[in-house]
Structures are given as structure tokens and as C-alpha cells.
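Hi W.,

Here's what went into the run:
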Amino acid sequence: MNFGSLDLNTTWFILIGVLFTGYAMLDGFDLGVGALHLFAKTDEERRVMLNAIGPVWDGNEVWLVTGGGALFAAFPNVYATVFSGFYLAFVLLLVALIFRAVAIEFRSKKPMLWWRRMWDIGFSAGSILSSLLIGVAMGNIAWGIPLDERGEFAGTFLSLLGPYPLMLGVTTVALFMMHGAIYALMKTEGALHDRLRGWINNAIIFFIICYAVTTMATLLYVPHMATRVRANPWLFSIALVNMLAIANIPREIHLGRDWRAFLSSCVAMIALMGLFGLEMYPNLVLSNPAPLNSLNIHNAASSQKTLGIMLTIALIGVPVVLAYTASIYWIFRGKVKLDKMSY
Amino acid sequence: MNMDVLTLSRFQFALTAAIHYLYPPLSIGLGIVLVIIEAMWLKTGKPVYHQMARFWTKVFALTFAIGVATGIVMEFEFGTNWATYSRYVGDVFGSALAAEGIFAFFLESGFLAVLLFGWDKVGPKTHFFATCMVCLGAHFSAIWIVVANSWMQTPAGFHIVGEGLKARAEITDFWAMVFNPSSMDRLFHTLCGAWQAGAFLVISVSAWYLLKRRHEDFARASLRVGLSVGLAASLLQLVSGHISAQGVAKNQPVKLAAFEGLYATSSNTPLTLFGWVDEKNEKTFGPKIPSLLSFLAWTDTAKPVAGLRETAPDLKDRPPVNFTFQLFHVMVIVGFWMILISALGFLYFWHGSLFEKRWLLWLLVFSVLGPQIANQAGWFAAEVGRQPWIVQGLLRTSEGLSAVVKANTILAAILLFSAVYILLFAVFVYLLNDKIQHGPDDTDLVPSGKLALPERNNP
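Here's what came out:
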């Protein structure tokens, strides 16, 4: 297909952003449910929580896999630099993702208490660690990582664990916990539903504290992540949408409109990712120090030909994916009922 | 440690890929079996097919979950351990991988939800549709990953841009890349192996039930499906193996010579049935059939097949010959063995006397290992046989590494992955055995959910 004068590099910057935002919105809630898993006390409650995400977590994780694949294809230099540079962090992320995936599958297969405890802990710890590492990776991308003139990572594993990235990691955990709690609220009823409302308040408070600290830290110590909004005040509207969406969550919960609360949480995530993308553009990985070595949408990209082919693939694939993903969420709408096929 | 980054990275990739590859072939093969079973159920309405669909779905779910969990590692590993390779091939290889995500993984995982949890939520036809989509998704993922790997074997549809460290492959013709000289042959070969893996699992479990005289109706019906698919796939595998090998002879003569332990080029090239390669003295010992290799490779008993001394005179251009030879021959021998036992099983089943032949039932119980051994040996032969290249003729494996990753970091990752994978494998075998011991549910003989009265079971 011929895309004329369309700026393919920018298009792919946006598409990669869309994939990772989709990942955050979808896998975010099942990671969050995992992070909250151990707060549920009885076996039945834990099973309800698991089955709330049961039919969909797998598809949600595919957003990460596809995001990784798209990054590989569209910006191979970024894929290579980040994945090899964050080697240990990614290995830990993989192990955490493996554990939580198989824990969901294995947990309810046997009745023994030790068995279920073991997988409960695996599921929860895996979910928390994955969320934390994803946030830390985002934090490092925002802060900037040392790159040499060939675009290779020049730091160490420990240098990735600076206070700002860690703060962003904790914020991500808090965000996913809140998001997951709202999702669980939509899928449950009865006593668990009422108790979840209590957790949500705590999760919202936890998130808002983290969010405020991170925002302040960003403005003070990472000023380059606010340059574009500072230069174009109308872009502040995105930040405003973000704040209003967050403020709307407790309101909707209070009014008992769980679905709208979830939607608000999604909007807040989209706005956050939007701001992140706006400030990063056209860079994909900031080099700090030596900003000249940064990887951007031009020096890290595949050829125009490949970007065009990939866009064709995306234009064919994405609408189909969205259509059946929506219908699957529709089939599994409503409150969770445990039956013999349940986890 | 005195092991280098190259050895460790190759070991890590081999370990994670080999363990991952225990599961997807089962998903692909069981996918086909599930489609057949559900189609039979829709057609005949016999409750035993419903019971079979339920039982094999549970087994499918188990293999699928671990397949996904171990598969994410593969997607990340190109970047973590092979960063230079990723930069070099990203333009070509990445697009196949991304296509896999968009076309295959979403399809598979999305409809898996309906397959596993949709029994009570959708009607039988919708459920059948979901099963078909999961099966199709599993096949799509095989298509794209085999296309990507085949491009590394026989690169096509690209040109090299830049020089030295900046050099990389860029696509010039997408369809030439997809239909590169080996991709369709190897896809066919891989899929046959996957169908065998699924079919022989079904055969094995069913034969075991028959030996133990448990769930006999279920076992007979499952065995019928399993043996049909197993025999068909094993025979097709013979055809596809032959076509693949002819492709290797033409496109990767060094690899073929290593498969066969062939050093000297001569007319009427013989085929070594099995044996041992003395790499130092460049000699291969074992029973040989004259002219057979020439015939198989070129359909011409006289035409010579090139040996390693001609195709790769420099030792550093050769793969480890004996290792490749053994892997290849294990695959071929196991392949013939599977044809033999599935044909025997099919024959006696058809004749009605299989259930008295306990020796054959026992052979069928252990036949589940056959496809797994052959699939592993085959992939190892394909990948080791391509060495020292990571992309045939373009990039050496030693040049594809991550520049910034240290040996002891990789070692730590290997230890971590090993521990996790050993645990996973143990749990997989334990749960699979548990499911098999438990057997199919007799309550499934009465369809539930939208198919009949809804029922609630206690946890």
C-alpha cells in the first residue's frame, strides 16, 4: 500500500504508544487484581478475583507481546538497546510474568492449602514485581539513560534503580492496584463487592499520593518532561483531563457507577500516556548525559518500506482484533459466577 | 567462569527455545483434534464427543498456558541477548514477529476464553467457531515464526544497507521475504510435527485407559480420532521431510552435508543409515546404501551431492558435524518409527483386534515421546546445522551478540530460567498426570449450560 506523504515514523511512534497504552489499560487491571489478590481472605473470594480476569488476562498480555514485536519491527535500535541494556530487569520481568501466568492456571487445580498458598503468593508477587518493573523502565526512559555514540547502553543494572525510576515504579503499582480494584468491583457482588469498595478508597489514596510526589519530582528534577506543555499552554488541557478523570473516580464509586469509574481510570491512563508521548517525541530513548546520542524516530527506525508494510498489516489486523476483543468482553460481561470450568 | 558470552547466549537461547517448544506443538496438534471432535459432536450429537471435547480442552488449556508463559521469553530474548542481530535484521525479521502478534496471538488468546469458559455462555455452533479460531490462531503463529526463522536459513527479498557496524538488512520485497525458498517446506514440516505431537498425546492417554480398562468408550472414540490424525500426519511428514531435505540440498549444501556426515563429493553418493562421524579424520562410519542420497536429493542416482570439503573447505565455516548428524538421524529414525506404530495401531483398530494386543497398546502409550523427541532433534539439527551463521551467509552467530551484556549476567539468567523451567515442567507433568488419572467426567455425558439445564458445582 502507498501512504503518500504520511510521516510513517511519527505514525509508528503513535502506534507504539497506542499499543503500550492498550497494554496498560487492559493488562493493568489484571496486574492490579493480582497485586490485591492476597488481601482477599477466603478461598472463594480469591477464586472470584481470579475468575474476574480468567477469560481475558491472556489476551491482555498479548498487547505487551505485540508491542514488543512492533517495537522490534518499527524501531529495531530501540528494541536492541533497551532490551539488552535492561537485561537483568527484563529477565526478572519475564520470570515474574511467567509466574503469574502459570499461577492463574495452576492454583485451583489442586485443593491442598499449601498448594493454593504457594500459587497465591506467586500470582501476587509476580503481578506486583511486573508492574513495578514496567514502571521503573518507564521512569528510566523519562529520566534518560547513558548511551554511547553507537546508541548502546553504557550504565549498569544498579544504575537503573535510581530514586525517580523507582518512584515511577511504585506509582505504576498504585495505579494498577486502583485500576484492578475498580475492575474487580465491576465483576463482583455481595460481601466481596462491599469490601472491595473499602479497598478502592485506600488504593485511590495510595495512588494520589504517589501521583502527586511523582508529578512534583518530574517538574523539579526532570524538567525536560514538561518542556512541550510549558511552551504550548493549551496542551495543559491534557493534564487537566487527567486530573479531572482521577478526581471523578471516587465520585463514580460513591454513586455506585462502577463502570464509569473504570472508564475514568482508563481516560486517566490515556491522558498520562499521551503526556508522556508528547514530551518524549521525537525521542524514543533519551540519552542522559550526552543527549546527542538519544534514539529518536529517525535514527532508530526501520526503512520507509518496512514501516509502510507494517502499517498495512496494522490496518488489516487491528480492526479485526478490536472487533473480536470487544465481542469477547461482551460474552463475559456481568458478575463472576463460579462453575466447574472456573479457575 | 571461563565460558564466553557467545556460548552462554547460545545455551540460554537453546534452553529457553527447547523448553518452549515442548508446548506449542501440543497446542497446534490438540487444536486440530479439538476441531475434529467438536465437529463430530455437532454432526452426530453423540454425548461421548461432548465428553471428549471437555476433557481434551482441559489438557489443551494446560499446555497453552505454559506455551504462552515460556513464549514471552522468546519474544524478548532477541533483544536481550542478540542486540546486534536485532539491529541487523529488525527491518525484516521484526515485521514477521509483529505480524505474528497481530494475526495469531490475539486470535488465539481471545477465542481461547470462549473455548475454555464459554461452554455455558454461548451455543454449540459459536463454541465450535471459537475452537476453529483458536486452532487457526495456533497455526498462524507457526506460519509467522517459521517464516521468520526460514528467512534466517534462506534469506530473500532484502538488500544490505550501510557498512561495517552500521550495516543492516532491509526489505525490498515483502512477499519474497515471506515466501523465501525454504519457508513453505519448513512450515509444512513443522506443522506435521505439531499434528503428530497432539495426535500421539491423545493416542497415548487413550491406549493407557484401554490397558487399565477405564473410560473405555471414551478411550476408543479418542483413539479413533488420534490414530487417524496421527497416521495421516506421520505419512505427510515423510513427504514433507523429503521435500524439506531436497530444499536443504539445494539451498544449504553445507547443512545437508553435515546432516549426512558427508565430506567427499562423489557421484552415486551413498546414504548413511546411522553411525558416527569422526570429525578429526573426516570419516563417517555406519551402514551405507549406495546412490541413495543422490537419488533422494536430486532424483538422480548418479548426480553427486557436495561434501563439506567442497562446500565449506574452511573449518570455521562448518557446523559441528557429528552432533548435527546424530540429531538429524534421530529425527528420521523416530519419524519412521511413528509411521510404523501408527499404521499398526490403525490397522488393528480397523480390524477390531487392537484392544487384545496389549504389547501394541503399551507401545502406543510411550509413543507420546516420539514426536517430542523428533521435534526437538529436528529443530536442533536445523539450527545447529546452520552454524556458524545466525543468518545464513550474511551474519555470523558470534557477530550477533549484545555488546553490553556480560557473561556472568547471562549465567545468572540461565540459572534463574533453569530453576523456573524445571519447576514449571515438574508442575506440568504433575497436573497432566493428575488430569489423566482423574479422567473424563461422566457428568459431561449430559451436556450442560446453554446446551441443557444449567448446573452449579461446588468448588
